[in-house]
From TrEMBL:
Mg(2+) binds at residues 129, 187. GO terms for molecular function: metal ion binding; phosphotransferase activity, for other substituted phosphate groups. It comes from Flavobacterium segetis. InterPro entries: Glycosyl_transferase_4 (IPR000715). Keywords: Cell membrane, Magnesium, Membrane, Metal-binding, Transferase, Transmembrane, Transmembrane helix. This is UDP-N-acetylmuramyl pentapeptide phosphotransferase/UDP-N-acetylglucosamine-1-phosphate transferase. It is a multi-pass membrane protein.
């Protein structure tokens, strides 16, 4: 009954936000780099930090993570309404990561470990945000990640907060996983969700001692890294909006439905997660095993990307 109540509450909160966003013109207008063509309400992902706040009130999650998510959510929402400079955004991310470290008692670790973790989480937050470009991709990928974390034995005590966030994803998905989305997550949604997932990734690795769980983010990670390298080779500004991710080529140039492409990404990550959990259960998920699996996934991704770009090149030459 509690979770049913949360479902109804989240639907009500989202509908109230739509009224507010409509009144104050918080919308996303398509431009030359957009993957959508219609004006859409921006910031519907504000439901995610709301869900975290409610989870805190119910005693499901710590104050450190609640404040961390709330901080990045507030700054990101302001940025959604009126673009901010890099400094306040980076500062909020840095403070939030510090709170994650505090929650997980990581400040006793060697400084070089903290630096590596800091870079990885900041990189993950930005990669997750950059990947938020078509209907359904953020919420479906998030839902797969949440379900996977909930499956791990080390996270059994965290099931209530994971279920709460899963419900918020389902509600947001009602308005986003459509041919014509009612709302987009916005930075407030994608960045707060990225921090939440990043926290659970680090938590799962620390408490299990299994570094291989990093493969739960393999699809986004490989696409983001290869795209950045490709843009650097072309001497493009990697901080500027673009349409160079594989999913963007599939949705924009190839003309596949946004929901189909988003489902493909989520399904690919789900299959990888199943393999990772199986390998861990059989004792095959050593560092060498993780490295080989990652190389295989990268090779498959590159083959698909090269094939798609080759098809597009041939099309444009005709």
């Amino acid at each position: 009954m509690l979770y049913l109540g949360l479902l109804i509450l989240f639907i009500a909160l989202e509908l109230v936000y739509f009224k507010i966003a409509d009144k104050y013109n918080i919308i996303d207008k398509p431009n030359a780099r957009s993957s959508h063509t219609a004006i859409t309400i921006r910031g519907g992902g504000i439901l995610f930090p709301f869900a975290i706040s409610i989870a805190y009130l119910l005693g499901y999650i710590s104050w450190q993570i609640t404040i961390a998510v709330a901080l990045v959510a507030v700054i990101s929402f302001i940025d959604d309404v009126k673009p901010l400079s890099q400094l306040p955004r980076f500062a909020s991310h840095a403070i939030a990561v510090g709170l994650v470290f505090f929650d997980l008692h990581l400040f006793s670790e060697a400084i070089w470990i903290l630096v590596i973790l800091f870079v990885l989480i900041i990189g993950w937050i930005n990669a997750f945000n950059f990947m938020d470009g078509i209907n359904g991709i953020t919420v479906l990928y998030s839902l797969i990640s949440i379900v996977t974390f909930a499956f791990l034995p080390v996270n059994q005590t965290s099931l209530p907060v994971l279920i709460t966030m899963g419900i918020s994803c389902l509600v947001f998905g009602l308005f986003n996983v459509r041919k014509k989305a009612k709302t987009f997550a916005g930075d407030v949604g994608s960045i707060s969700m990225a921090l939440f997932l990043g926290y659970f990734m680090i938590k799962s690795i620390v408490e299990s001692g299994q570094f291989g769980f990093v493969l739960f983010f393999a699809v986004y990670g490989i696409d983001a890294v290869i795209t950045i390298v490709s843009r650097l080779v072309k001497k493009e500004n990697i901080f500027q909006p673009h349409r160079s991710h594989l999913y963007q080529y599939l949705a924009n140039e190839k003309g596949f439905s946004h929901v189909v492409v988003a489902s493909l990404y989520a399904s690919a990550q789900l299959m990888i997660n199943i393999v990772v959990v199986y390998m861990d259960g059989k004792g095959y998920l050593s560092l060498n095993g993780v490295g080989l699996f990652l190389l295989l996934l990268t090779f498959i991704y590159l083959m698909i990307r090269v094939n798609i770009l080759s098809q597009l090149s041939s099309k444009y030459q005709k």
